[in-house]
Amino acid sequence: MCGIVGIAGAHEPQWLTAMNAAGRHRGPDDQGEYRDEEAQVALAMHRLSILDLVGGRQPMSNEDGTLWIVHNGEIYNSPDLRSELESRGHRFATKNSDTEVLLHLYEEKQEEMLADLNGMFAFVIYDRPRGVLFGARDRIGIKPLYYARRPSQFAFASELKSFLGLPWISRDINLESLFHYMSLRFIPDTGSIFQGIHRVPPGHWFRYDLRTRDLEIRSYWRPNFRRQEERSRAEWCALVRQGLRDAVRRWILSDVPVGVSLSGGLDSSAIVGLLGELGVSPIRTYTLGFTGAGEEEWNELPLARKVAERWGTEHHELILEPDDLLQDLLRMVWHLDEPYGGGLPSWYVFQFMRGHVKIGLTGTGGDELFGDYGRFARFEAHAANGAAGITPWWAPAWQPVAALVRCIPDSWIAPQQKREWAHLPELRRDPFRWCYFNRYFYFPDETKRASLFSANTAAIPDTSRVLQECYRASETAVPRDAINSVGFATQLPEEFLLMTDRFSMAHALEARVPFLDHQFVELVHQIPAHVRTRPGDLKYLLKAAVGDLLPPELLRAGKRGFVIPTAQWLRGKLRPLADRLLSVERLRAQGIFQPDFHTRYVVPHLKGCVDYHAEIWTALMFQLWHLLFIEERLTDVPAFSWQDLC
Questions:
Q1: Which has more pLDDT, 396 or 163?
Q2: Average pLDDT of the chain?
Q3: Which of 44, 526, 530, 641 pairs with 91 at a CA distance of 20 to 30 A?
Q4: d(C-alpha 80, C-alpha 87), whole Å
């Protein structure tokens, strides 16, 4: 695992060094640079050594030095690919480096190489004969890759903070990204929080021509629900069991010790059971537990212990008070790179694991594959409306509006007319679905425009529209599949996997997610939606597939999860911080949000009149990000704490 950076175009030598230094936490074992001064290309990286500890140094070149690569991630089928390449005459300088496999595969296939890869990766190859930089991000978006460009220069990096030392990069906020963040608590799509810095989307490659300065970005993979097969439940159970077993076997490829983040839930417990079935020894498991009021409702320590006992693992537990999650709050904000309002406990799990191992397997992805948290239910209710008599509870109130919308003629919709009229075709086709996307946001679109932002947001598309476009792009009429596709395009890569990558790499730990092995993902997407999951028991098929590996108590337990006590924090420990960072005077000077946010949201919450903790926490986490990255203009981990800000 690594942090990778690079520049093309005229630049000062120290720029690359500064970019690379910003990612040193991602790879403390080694670092390296490559410069082609004539072509004005420079690559660098910090390395966390996982495979070929001695011989896998980067940047790495092929035999004649015509190709150079920097690579973040792991290619889990690299042993098989190496054997195939050797049989075709390729000669390797390293013992078992997966990075060198990428070089030789590119020699043969260029862009087509990506179809052969199984793993999590973000890499960039400097192809000197062709005069291009070729880069790619893995299918699911497990590993990050950002880029920035202007007419004469191009730069890429694993993290946003690596760009901040470049003199031609501003710290101007991308208002569209912030607009979406306030609804979702993460930033969707290809933008970032900074203007001019973009993401390479999951399952895409880019090619930057060093001569013409043209940039081409193309998709090479996306979720596909069109190849579904009708099989019996027993057949699918056997296929799921074997498919996940194969994924776990592939994803433990390593020259260093591997552990498992064992939450006590079904997904991580299944990984432990499959490791045991594979004969892996020792199995190292790590569980985070909490003490305090209400612990018994969500604490999964007892279930995790039963799994550990079942397989005789080397089990380790870390017990925290809920308030302990605030200890490193500013460090978390710094390492996350972008505003983020989601969960925090993984920080301490990865910190704990890094004291013992370099690799941590997690169950991330199991929820998205099997049921996607049941978010499809209301969509299915609308789809069945009329045919089966199932009506969403909010439908009666929407019916008059829907009827009016359907009567509006297409001729009314023209470029010069108001922005909101552009939504009418979608509303006419499916007003319930459109309404749903906006209903459960932390800040609905209409609230953001009317009473949240001071800045002009008229040109920004609704967040609900962004998600609706993802829904339509799924090219399926089955709501369970379409909603799954939306999650794979947005929340999974840009919230859950972003957090997993940043929090693990902050502690130089490689987090691996075998549920998101693309071959397993494609297998699960072949299962018809009604077989893959059930509304009342979302993971019934997964339970049937791996149930014999797990304690019976775990199979009977409902889904649990630690809920961050933000409502209590904001009325207690964090109250001075919220009062300061969300004050009327500060917001007026900042000019982003309307100054009465404090009066409208913070004061009623503090008085206990209403619960606005979700809205306040979303805004507060942005303000902490703004303070570190914009006001303090930090280039390293903050040396002060959130208490100092109070």
A1: 163
A2: 89
A3: 44
A4: 11
**The residue type at 573:** K
Q: Among residues 126, 146, 107, which one has the least CA distance to residue 37?
A: 126
Contacts of 310 (CB under 8 A, 6+ apart): 273, 276, 549, 550, 551
- Name the nearest CA neighbour of 243 among 552, 526, 483: 526
Confirm if 328 and 499 have CB atoms less than 8 A apart: no
Angle between helices 98-109 and 78-87 (to 10 degrees): 50
pLDDT for residue 383 is more than 90: no
The answer to whether residue 389 scores a pLDDT higher than 50 is no
Which H or E run includes 626?
helix 613-626
How much is the pLDDT for 496?
Answer: 96
- 264 and 363 Cβ atoms separated by less than 8 Å: no
Answer whether residue 164 shows pLDDT above 50.
yes
Q: Are strands 284-290 and 314-320 parallel, antiparallel or unpaired?
A: parallel
Distance from chain centroid for Cα 348: 18
Contact status, residue 247 vs residue 275, Cβ threshold 8 Å: no
> How far, in Å, CA of 622 to CA of 185, rounded?
9
* pLDDT score of 421 more than 70: no
How many other CB atoms sit within 10 Å of the CB of residue 543?
18
Alpha helices by DSSP H, listed for 443-533, are: 445-447, 463-473, 479-489, 491, 498-505, 518-525, 529-532
**What is the enclosing helix (H) or strand (E) of 429?**
helix 424-429
For residue 68, what are the β-bridge partners?
61, 126
Task: Say what the pLDDT of residue 145 is.
Answer: 98
Query: What was the pLDDT predicted at 415?
Result: 38
Query: Would you say 156 and 234 are in contact if contact means Cβ atoms under 8 Å apart?
Result: no
CB neighbour class for 198 (10 Å; exposed up to 12, middle 13-18, buried from 19): buried
Give the pLDDT confidence score for residue 419 in this predicted structure. 38
Secondary structure of residue 31 in the 3-state scheme: strand
463-473 and 175-184 helices cross at what angle (nearest 10)? Answer: 80
Domains for the chain: give ranges and CATH numbers.
2-219 (3.60.20.10), 224-322+340-560 (3.40.50.620), 566-645 (no CATH)
Q: Does residue 422 surpass a pLDDT of 50?
A: no
pTM equals: 0.90
In tens, the pLDDT along 201-233 reads 999 999 999 999 999 999 999 999 988 999 999
Q: Which two tokens stand for residue 14?
A: 């120290």
Long-range contacts of 591-597 (CB under 8 A, 24+ apart): 591/454, 591/455, 592/173, 592/175, 592/178, 592/453, 592/454, 592/455, 593/452, 593/453, 593/454, 593/619, 594/451, 594/452, 594/453, 594/454, 595/454, 597/452
Distance from first CA to last CA of the chain, Å, rounded?
A: 37
| pLDDT surpassing 90 at residue 382 | no
Helices 377-384, 479-489: axis angle to 10 degrees equals 140
Instruction: Decide if pLDDT at 397 tops 70.
Output: no
**Which residues on neighbouring strands pair with residue 149, listed in sequence order?**
154
Q: In a 10 Å sphere around its CB, with 0-12 CB exposed, 13-18 middle and 19+ buried, how is residue 116 labelled?
A: middle
